[in-house]
Amino acid sequence: MKFRKKIVLLFLPCLFLFAGCIKHFSGTKDTVEYWNSFTADKTYSYDEKFYAVQEVEEDYLPGADTPSYYTKVSIYEAETDIPVFSFCPARARDFWGICWENDTYNIWTQSGDIGVYCYKYEDMQWKRDESAKRPSYIISKYDKKVKTGQ
């Protein structure tokens, strides 16, 4: 009987730890997994002509002994899986995802240190457009939640 009690007491903290992990990865607005309109997953343009993926790239700056890590966004033609363009918008540790506009091939990125930026599509290239106005339906993880009466 004492042995069972010790086992229960040993595994009880593990149960609470596991329960805490479930809450952390559940995607609620109070966790780091909640990115609003943005994602770290493979994501398709509005008509599924293109898809974008992000990955971490390692780079050594001149004279540096340790590497720096950047997020690389690669865009592919969905029908052929052929890469058509890529760009590095921010440091990996600060990067919080990408999303497409609903009716164009423009891509938006969000980063904890540099903010939210548009990469405008022109002639099979995506170039950063600092003057772009973010559509109201693209919501950053840093935007305050607005009450909608629901």
Defining traits:
single chain, 150 residues, alpha+beta, 1 helix, 8 strands, 37% strand, globular
Explain how this protein is built.
There is one protein chain. The protein has a four-stranded antiparallel sheet with strand order 1-2-3-4, with no helix packed on it. The protein has a four-stranded antiparallel sheet with strand order 5-6-7-8, with no helix packed on it. The N and C termini lie far apart (52 Å). 17% of the residues are buried. With 150 residues, it is α+β, with helices and mostly antiparallel strands. It is 15% helix and 37% strand. It is globular.
How is the secondary structure organized here?
Layout: H1 2-24, E1 43-44, E2 50-59, E3 68-77, E4 82-91, E5 95-100, E6 107-111, E7 115-122, E8 125-129
Antiparallel strand pairs: 1-2, 2-3, 3-4, 5-6, 6-7, 7-8
* Major sheet strand order: 1-2-3-4
Order of helices and strands: HEEEEEEEE
Rg over C-alpha atoms, rounded to the nearest angstrom? 21 Å
Helix-strand makeup class: alpha+beta
How many helices? The count is 1
Task: Please state the average pLDDT score.
Answer: 80
Strand content: 35-45%
